[in-house]
Amino acid sequence: MKEVDQLLAAAQSEEHTPPHALMARVLLDADRIQQARTKPARRGFFRQLSDELNLWPMLGGLAVACSLGFWVGIDPPMGLFDPIETVFWNDSFTELEEAAELSGFGWDLGEI
Asked: Which residues of the chain, if any, have pLDDT below 50?
């Protein structure tokens, strides 16, 4: 362990500097990259807003929900209340007669 400690102490005491040619190449490369960078094109307000809020997935979900709601409203699954049929194609008088016959409460008083 003492040998390792001595080697580490010797390595820390030496001053390590990179060669001047390497530093010159690194600085030239950094200058070239900085000059090549340009400002990005200015985006419009709505483009920036849509990018920040991630607007397209939200609009896609809204479109799917609206179309599904429209479809279920026009042609609901079996067992659900159909508002369009009730409003436009339902004869309420016939329905009341059928309900009275099926429930047993439609008897006239004279028949008892």
From this structure: none
- Report if pTM > 0.70: no
Helices (H), 1-112: 2-13, 20-36, 45-53, 55-74, 83-88, 92-103
In the structure encoding, which two tokens stand for residue 30, read together?
């950094």
The two most distant CA atoms of the chain are separated, in Å, by 121
Tokens coding 103: 């429930």
79 φψ region: left (φ > 0), alpha (ψ -120 to 50), beta (else): left
Say what the pLDDT of residue 35 is.
84
Distance, CA of 26 to CA of 30 (rounded, Å):
6
Q: Which residues contact 10 (CB under 8 A, 6 or more apart)?
A: none
**Where do we find the tokens 């362990």?**
1
Task: Compute CA 69 distance to the chain's CA centroid, rounded to the nearest angstrom.
Answer: 19
Q: Which pair of tokens denotes residue 18?
A: 């990179």
Polymer length in residues for the chain: 112
Q: Distance between CA atoms of 107 and 112, rounded to whole angstroms?
A: 8
